[in-house]
Write a structure and sequence with these properties.
Elements lengths: L21 H27 L7 E3 L3 E5 L6 H8 L5 E6 L4 H5 L6 E5 L2 E2 L13 H14 L5 E7 L2 E7 L3 E3 L2 E5 L6 E3 L3 E5 H6 L3 H16 L2 H7 L3 H21 L5 H14 L12 H16 L18 H5 L2
Parallel strand pairs: 9-11
Antiparallel strand pairs: 1-8, 2-3, 4-5, 4-6, 6-7, 10-11
Helix pairs in contact: 1-2, 1-6, 6-8, 6-9, 8-10, 9-10
């Protein structure tokens, strides 16, 4: 899951103020809440379907931000406190980080006894480089398969946490601060625009969009399109993503039928749009494809409470078959 959200890198819309205004502080906090909403849905999908993912990573379920990534640092400090320059922005409810008692506002001090570098080569310029570096260090440490020792500056002083999360499907989730109704996947991350998040009536509809993009990553579509390319190849990957998305939703506890409603609403709202290029099915055909998958799920035996998606062949399937 992407610790640092793209939405927080594009906050120039908040006007510069010598003294932070309450409306600007509220705007910063609202954007972080959108970040947490997407992170929560993404984590739920990625953790529930972990047995079927060939590529996984150990993810604590948190979002990290840096006071330096904001255009107005005084506003950011007023909104979030920042006990350290890089801190926990939010924690996914029920995640390993949440169960450890890690809270939003806790500042990052050290990893396995090594103090994080809080220095910056461009202290007066908006930059995410420092947070990205810390994010990379955390991922590499977690990839070693052992518990990491994370020292945080909490409301009650410094505290060390033994962070040892399970593996989930490898994908990062970030909000793109654009009003356009759009989402995308690049093989590693899932991008959802703020406009699409607002358009989604509820978390289940947003999960339908996220599951479709996550499916692209899990099926390696980016690599396939690099090798093949062409309109027909793109259409084939879009159909596969629609097919897999409803299985991912069902395993995560979302009603997969909501994907049908969302596809219709999105299709009616956007009209032909990108569909006219022949790279995507029209919304009625998308609904038919997903409906067929939902009907197939109804007669598919569960394994350890999960529905094995036909398009995936995760390494832990033999373990599920025994249960």
């Amino acid at each position: 899951m992407k610790f640092l959200s793209g939405i927080l890198l594009l906050l120039a819309c908040v006007a510069a103020q010598a003294d932070p205004r309450q409306e600007d502080i509220a705007a910063y906090r609202a954007l972080v809440q959108q970040d947490l909403r997407l992170a929560t849905i993404g984590y739920r999908l990625a953790s529930a379907n972990a047995p079927f993912c060939a590529r996984r990573e150990r993810n604590p379920g948190w979002v990290i931000h840096d006071e330096q990534q904001y255009p107005e640092r005084d506003t950011a400090r007023a909104a979030f406190g920042f006990r350290r320059p890089v801190a926990i922005s939010s924690v996914v409810p029920g995640s390993p980080a949440d169960r450890l008692g890690i809270q939003a506002g806790d500042g990052l001090v050290a990893l396995d006894g090594n103090i994080f570098d809080a220095q910056s080569r461009a202290p007066d310029r908006q930059s995410a480089a420092r947070a990205e570096k810390i994010q990379q260090d955390l991922r590499q440490a977690l990839a070693r398969g052992r518990a990491i020792r994370l020292t945080l500056e909490t409301a009650n002083g410094q505290r060390e946490f033994a962070v040892d999360p399970p593996s989930i499907c490898a994908s990062h989730f970030w909000v793109d601060a654009k009003s356009k109704l759009d989402a995308g996947a690049d093989g590693e991350g899932v991008r959802v625009t703020e406009g699409l998040m607002i358009f989604a009536r509820d978390d289940a509809e947003l999960a339908a969009a996220v599951a479709h993009e996550l499916a692209h990553n899990l099926l390696g579509h980016r690599e396939r399109l690099k090798a093949q390319g062409g309109t027909r190849a793109v259409l084939a990957t879009e159909i596969e993503a629609d097919r897999l998305s409803v299985w991912l939703m069902a395993n995560a506890g979302f009603d997969p039928k909501v994907a049908l409603r969302f596809a219709e609403r999105y299709g009616r709202k956007t009209g032909l749009g990108i569909f006219s290029a022949g790279t995507h099915l029209r919304w009625k055909n998308r609904v038919s494809v997903m409906q067929a998958e939902i009907e197939a799920m109804a007669v598919t035996p569960r394994r350890s409470g999960l529905l094995p998606p036909p398009l995936l062949s995760g390494a832990d399937w033999p373990l599920l078959a025994k249960n």
